[in-house]
Here is the input.
Amino acid sequence: MIHPLADVQTESVGKNTDIWQFCVVLPKARIGENCNINAHVFIENDVIVGNNVTVKSGVQLWDGLRIEDNVFIGPNVTFTNDFLPRSKHYPKSFLKTTLERGASIGANATLIGGIVIGEYAMVGAGSVVTKDIPAQELWHGNPAVFHGYVCRCGKKCDESLVCEDCQKEAAS
Here is the structure.
């Protein structure tokens, strides 16, 4: 479903993807299946969004962003893609940022361009991320620092990377 008040210029939108009102999606952007792109989202041309991705309201996805499957991006998350921004002066190429499968980014977090957020990693709300975050790690703060591990289900766990609830489910 593409809301009639959205400006979706790309033809590359997967099945069962919802794009809500007041979104702008430029012609070369690619969006996968079963995504939910909430109101007031802007997506530039050199952006790839995987399947089952949620992008909450007030997010801009700039050139160079790669979002793998099952990623959650909270409201008003900010991405950057240029270390030396100047009006009307563009870099030869924008920084590449990757959110790997299952990663979650909390509301109002800021991610500096050129980093990788690992599989199932979690970034806390309001954090400023300036470096890569490994798989299944929990980072938050300004600047964001390591605060432990998260299970694929999202609950905090130890270095085994599986929470008590998931271990119980696997045993039954």
In short: The domain at 7-171 is CATH 2.160.10.10 (UDP N-Acetylglucosamine Acyltransferase; domain 1). Residues 164-171 form the longest helix (8 residues).
